[in-house]
Design brief:
two-stranded antiparallel sheet, globular, single chain, alpha+beta, 109 residues
């Protein structure tokens, strides 16, 4: 009779994780939904951006952008650009900022 090696605890955990991921344990990014700003109040959207720091928001059925609450959510070399979007109760609601790469031709503080 032949004896098979015993799987270590670490190897067993790794195998279980791999099996779970292969079985569909992780949803594809396209299946995740974004908050839809036009259906939310101005204060709800602004509070969401402040609470999360950085968030992807749908601004229409076909458009979205990443909004941030502070410069530390931007990459090196990017600056903040004020952003106003339409919400349920305000057509020009200030919700925070987008990260913007300034250049000689498009610098807008």
């Amino acid at each position: 009779m032949r004896h098979l090696p015993v799987m270590t605890r670490h190897a067993a955990a790794s195998a279980a994780l791999a099996a779970a991921l292969c079985a569909g344990g992780a949803a594809p990014a396209s299946a995740q939904s974004r908050p839809y700003a036009p259906s939310m109040s101005c204060s709800e959207v602004a509070a969401l951006v402040r609470a999360k720091g950085a968030v992807l928001l749908s601004t229409s059925p076909t458009t979205f952008d990443r909004y941030v609450s502070a410069a530390n959510y931007c990459s090196v070399g990017e600056v903040l650009k004020n952003q106003w979007i339409a919400t349920r109760d305000n057509p020009q609601c200030f919700i925070g900022y987008t990260c913007f790469v300034p250049s000689r031709d498009n610098w807008v503080p």
